[in-house]
Design brief:
By secondary structure, the protein is an alpha/beta fold. The chain is built from eleven helices and ten strands. It has helices at about 10-20, 40-55, 65-80, 90-100, 115-120, 120-125, 145-150, 155-170, 185-195, 205-215, 240-250, and strands at about 1-5, 25-30, 60-65, 85-90, 105-110, 135-140, 175-180, 200, 230-235, 255-260. Helix 1 crosses helix 10, helix 4 packs across helix 6 and helix 4 crosses helix 10.
C-alpha cells in the first residue's frame, strides 16, 4: 500500500480492522508530498518505481491509498503489477460506487486536490455507475498540506474549509466524496459546515471492502483467526512520519525504514 504521505494511513487503519489476519507494508512517499500539485509526468514515473519496489518485496496485492496517485498513475501501477500477475486496488472507483449507491438526489460532490480534479477520474467513475448524477467537483489545494503539517485548527482553517464547501452547498449535494485520504481527519469540520444530512464517503471503508473482495476472489486471503504484521517505509524524514502517522493510524507505528526512490526532491 502506498500514498504520497500519511493520509493513506486512514485507509490502512480500515484494512487492519477489516482484515486483521493479513500482513501489510505501507510506503509513504513524504519526500514528494504533496502529489496534488506535482508535475503529472514526474508522478507517473514515480508511481511506477514505487509499484515495482513494493512488488519486488513480494506483495500479493497492491493498494493505491492515494487519490491523486490513482487519478494520475493507476494505469502505470497496473502495467507494472500485471507483469507479476498481481492485482491493483485503487481508491477512486470504490468510492464512486458507494457514492452512486447512496445518493438520494443524484447530486454528488467531490472535494479533492487539483491534480485529482483535473484528471477527471472521479467524474468518469461516477458516470460509469449507470445513474444520472449531477457531479460538482471542487479543488482544495491547501487542505491536504495543512493536515499533513499537523498544525492546530484556527479560524483561518475553518474559513478555508467554508470557502471550499461553498460551491458544494450551492449545488445542494447530498453526498460528498472525500477525494483525498487526508480529508477524513477533518471530516467533523466538513460535516458541520455542510450539515448533518450530507453523507461523506471516505476512502478507508470503500478500499477495505474492495481489498477483502479481491483477496477472496483470487483465493489469496489468509485464514481467519490470526493477527498479521504491519510495517512502514517512507522516503522522507522518519521521526516526523512516525509522529504524524501515529495520529492518522490511531495505532503505534513502531519501526519506520527510510528508503530512497529515483527522482527524490531535495
Amino acid at each position: 500500500m502506498f500514498d504520497s504521505g500519511v493520509g493513506g494511513l486512514t485507509v490502512l487503519h480500515e484494512c487492519l480492522v477489516s482484515l486483521p489476519e493479513e500482513d501489510f507494508v505501507y510506503l509513504g512517499d513524504t519526500a514528494m508530498f504533496p502529489y496534488g500539485t506535482r508535475d503529472p509526468d514526474h508522478l507517473r514515473e514515480r508511481i511506477g518505481g514505487i509499484a515495482g519496489l513494493l512488488l519486488d518485496g513480494g506483495a500479493k496485492l497492491l493498494v493505491i491509498a492515494c487519490n491523486t496517485a490513482t487519478s494520475i498513475g493507476e494505469d502505470v501501477a497496473r502495467e507494472v503489477a500485471a507483469r507479476r500477475g498481481v492485482e491493483v486496488v485503487p481508491v477512486v472507483e470504490p468510492q464512486a460506487e458507494i457514492a452512486a449507491a447512496i445518493t438520494d438526489s443524484g447530486k454528488v460532490g467531490v472535494l479533492a486536490t487539483p491534480n485529482t480534479v483535473e484528471s477527471g477520474a472521479y467524474r468518469r467513475s461516477l458516470e460509469a455507475q449507470g445513474r444520472a448524477l449531477e457531479v460538482t467537483e471542487v479543488e482544495a489545494p491547501d487542505l491536504a498540506p495543512f493536515i499533513q503539517d499537523g498544525s492546530p485548527f484556527d479560524e483561518a482553517v475553518v474559513d478555508m474549509a467554508r470557502a471550499y464547501c461553498a460551491p458544494l452547498k450551492r449545488a445542494a449535494v447530498d453526498t460528498l466524496i472525500l477525494g483525498c485520504t487526508h480529508y477524513p481527519l477533518v471530516a467533523p469540520m466538513l460535516q458541520r459546515i455542510l450539515g448533518r444530512d450530507v453523507r461523506l464517503v471516505s476512502g478507508g471503508h470503500a478500499v477495505a471492502a474492495a481489498v477483502q473482495r479481491c483477496l477472496g476472489q483470487r483465493d489469496l486471503a489468509c485464514p481467519p483467526g490470526g493477527e498479521g504484521d504491519y510495517r512502514f517505509l517512507c522516503s522522507g524524514e522518519v521521526d516526523s512520519f512516525r509522529e504524524l502517522g501515529t495520529r492518522f493510524l490511531q495505532m503505534p507505528l513502531g519501526e519506520v525504514e527510510r528508503i530512497s526512490l529515483p527522482g527524490d526532491y531535495p
